[in-house]
Each structure stands twice: as structure tokens, then as C-alpha cells.
Amino acid sequence: MAREEEAITQTFNNYVQTFQTLDPNATLAYFHVPCMFIPPHGVRVLATAADVEALLTQVMQDLKARSYARS
């Protein structure tokens, strides 16, 4: 169990580091499709990698506009 927890923690840390680059293509590798996002205004189902990439591109552009630095 400890090894599984370490692997999960490492994967999450890798995802956070990748997300902080604000590169949607790099971050895309951490998503499986179909997938769901649950923002405050409702659920959004993304059926393809292109859908995820489009959403991540928009989110990351918004973060850049707000001078996002890190999680």
C-alpha cells in the first residue's frame, strides 16, 4: 500500500509541475477521455483529447492573463 501511495503522490506532483508550465499539450498527457470537469457553474463532459486540449488552452490563457505563477 505504501508504494501505491508513493506512486499516486508522485504522479500528482508531476501533474502539478506540468500544469504550472501552462502548456496544454504537456498537461494533456494526464487526462483520459472521456472525462468530466466540475466547475462551479455545472458539469462539463469532454469526449475527446481535442476537447480537453481546447479547455486547457482556455484555462491556461486565462491564468496567464492573471499572472499565474504556481499552484
Q: Any idea what the shape is?
A: globular
Number of helices: 3
Number of domains: 1
- State the share of residues found in helices, binned by percent: 55-70%
- Outline the biggest β-sheet: 2 strands, antiparallel
Spatial extent as radius of gyration: 13 Å
Q: Give the amount of beta strand, in percent.
A: 5-15%
Average pLDDT, all residues? 94
- Secondary structure class reads mainly alpha
Order of helices and strands: HHEEH
Cα distance spanning the termini: 27 Å
Characterise the protein shown here.
The chain is mainly alpha-helical and 71 residues long. It has one domain. 56% of the residues lie in helices and 8% in strands. The chain is built from 3 helices and 2 strands, in the order ααββα. The protein has helices at 2-19, 24-28, 49-65, and strands at residues 35-37, 44-46. It has a two-stranded antiparallel sheet. The radius of gyration is 13 Å and the shape is globular. It starts with a helix and ends in a 6-residue tail after the last helix.
Topology:
Layout: H1 2-19, H2 24-28, E1 35-37, E2 44-46, H3 49-65
Antiparallel strand pairs: 1-2
Can you tag this structure with a few keywords?
two-stranded antiparallel sheet; globular; mainly alpha; 71 residues; 56% helix
Concise account of the structure shown:
This protein is mainly alpha-helical. It has helices spanning 2-19, 24-28, 49-65, and strands at residues 35-37, 44-46.
